[in-house]
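Take a protein:
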Amino acid sequence: MKQISLLLFIFLISSKIIYCQQTKALTETADFGSNPGNLKMFVHINSRKDTNKIPLVIVLHGCGQNAKDAAELTGWNKLADINDFVVLYPQQKLLNNPNLCFNWFNDRDIEKNQGECESIFQMISFAKKYYAVDSNKIYITGLSAGAAMSVVMATVHPELFKYGAIFAGVAYKIADNPIEGFEAMLGKKYISKEKLVKAVREQNPKYKGQYPSMIIYQGLSDGVVNYKNASFLVNQWTDINNSDTIPDNIERSFLGIADISRTEYADSMGRKTVILYEVKNLGHELLIKPGEKENEGGHKGMFGVNKGFHSTYQTAKDFGILKKK
């Protein structure tokens, strides 16, 4: 129990990053809808002169963080400025969760049209209306509890997203309460693929469209979210996308980095439904690469480790939102 309590504490406080003054200002929008989940909305967008539709990336922070922390840690704003897309940062409130975690294990916040997931949906709807967003190019990503809530959003509104990117996250409804959530994080909870897939389908029983593809990053030394959770995510999102769990491509030492492997799963049409990055010697952290170049960025610290690989840049590349040079 002491080990579980310690890991729970680490997960809940997650990464309270002190952001530097170089972080570009975010714009808060107070009135974006009825906001049943009582969240805050922040947006980063460059001043634009053209009227072309642009992509939207939703970034969900980890426990103990806020929107500015997430922006500094990940480096999404820099890429948005270079490649012309909008970044939306939902933010948790202490009133909802004393550790500023998104409540990914509470039914009232993860069922369609309810609570926090409905608030995030309203933010996206607002952004689509006021920021010339291309409805076919909407993406969501998050770290830890933010990753888990990203999975929630891809589940309850699959029609919205083209891709999700999950950093140290868990499968949808792998837990129904905080205690089960802690067990799942530690890799001590088993749930069948059939039950995982059923949980997703039950949110939209009449939906016949395509579900978003998933990019999964998992550190193999993560003591907060056990690497077994990546397998549950692969099982859930390959099946929901009508593909199997036999890899279509495996690349060891991805981009020449010995600790990173990339595994791709595809459907019968060749669409990549799941991309799994497994990283040796990585704990509960993001992969960053500080620097000024486009493929460099992020904030090194307790939850950002430099392995010469900027995971945000690679994610944007996988999303397909980097401008061709």
